[in-house]
Design brief:
Elements lengths: L8 E4 L5 H12 L3 E6 L2 H14 L5 E5 L2
Parallel strand pairs: 1-2, 2-3
């Protein structure tokens, strides 16, 4: 099955570690508009920078929730 994620907005929970972080990286590299959800301000910011660096030009943002 082929699924074109380019340009789709995707909300990734648990995006500051593990599977969530890897999903955010992968989706950003595939051209999705990624919103990363995290609880810790500093950790979320670090992960946001990491995903942006791994997918140059991708639209990646974060949202703090608890």
């Amino acid at each position: 099955m082929t699924w074109d994620i380019r340009g789709k907005r995707v909300l990734v929970t648990g995006a500051t570690s593990g599977i969530g972080l890897e999903a955010a990286r992968s989706l950003a590299k595939q051209g999705a508009k990624v919103v990363m959800v995290g609880r810790d301000t500093a950790k979320t910011a670090r992960c946001l920078d990491d995903v942006r660096a791994s997918a140059l030009g991708a639209e990646v943002s974060s949202l703090l929730c608890d």
